Amino acid sequence: MRLLTLLASYLSVAAAATLGKRAPTPGSLSQVTSFGTAPTKAGFYIYVPKKLAASPGIIVAIHYCTGSAQAYFSGSPYKTLSEQYGFIVIYPSSPHSGTCWDVSSKQTLSHEGGGDSNTIANMVKWTLTEYKADATKVYVTGTSSGGMMTNVLAATYPDVFKAGIVYSGVNAGCFVSSSGGVDAWNNTCANGQSTATPQAWANVVFNMYPGYNGSRPKMQVYHGSADSTLKPQNYQETMKQWAGVFGYDYNKPQSTKANDPQSGYTRTIYGPSVEGIYAQGVGHSVSMRGADDMKFFGFA
Ligand SMILES: *[C@@H]1O[C@H](CO)[C@@H](O)[C@H](O)[C@H]1NC(C)=O
Ligand SMILES: *[C@@H]1O[C@H](CO)[C@@H](O)[C@H](O)[C@H]1NC(C)=O
């Protein structure tokens, strides 16, 4: 008996060693240090639930500026939800000083361009293979800088992500740096002064992955009307962008409902794949709505 146990643990250590990494421990946040090509030094943390579903889904949950994988792991509801629904959560950790995400360089704003978006997409690909996960259930969400990155990933990897939920971000390409800066702050965008037509913003998305003609992730976007860090106009620009991408008429939404999903919030549905939720009187911190996220992603 004892020998068998010893043999079993020896074999699992050997298996992990062969793969050149420590196997993530189910039920605790674990770092993956080797996952194929990583063009940037973004950290890869993963939460594999103790009750892993067969052919599990994957949620990528992306932290805000000054945040970390650990902080977002503790401060977001996805760990608990992953135990409930059996999906895996990937928590990337920004490699930049100040730890915002690079959403400004040409590299990150291009499919397979060698930026942070590329590194995060490779974390997903590793996880799909390693856990025989379900490629039709891969989702992304994030807050603030992580919300910006959610839009960037939806734009650069429409082939990987099936849906995205953005909390208090800016649209894809809005933070672009004219001088090609990596992880550059863009005041014009943050102040809500980068405005364009739905078609122009859609073209920004199309140009991030030229020639791509497959399906695109459905998008849900939250923003507070009293956001002074990323001005509320960024909500409108983000809705224009995704409405434009899907060919919906931004000026004629399908429906607008007050006090949905809660008092003071307004839900606007532009079409089957795009909806926005505007939170009246709320600042830069719009609370995550885990149970609603589960519905949007299709787990609940
Ligand atoms: C900021 O972003 C806008 C697009 O939103 C771009 O036109 C402008 O050049 C950027 N500013 C800088 C300083 O890079
Ligand atoms: C979409 O792209 C694929 C691969 O590049 C190509 O084979 C196909 O003809 C394209 N379809 C359309 C409708 O453009």
From TrEMBL:
It is found in: Secreted. GO terms for molecular function: carboxylic ester hydrolase activity. Residues 1-16 form the signal peptide. GO terms for cellular component: extracellular region. GO terms for biological process: xylan catabolic process. Its EC number is 3.1.1.-. The keyword Disulfide bond does not apply. Keywords: Carbohydrate metabolism, Glycoprotein, Hydrolase, Polysaccharide degradation, Secreted, Serine esterase, Signal. Belongs to the carbohydrate esterase 1 (CE1) family. Esterase involved in the hydrolysis of xylan, a major structural heterogeneous polysaccharide found in plant biomass representing the second most abundant polysaccharide in the biosphere, after cellulose. This is Carboxylic ester hydrolase.
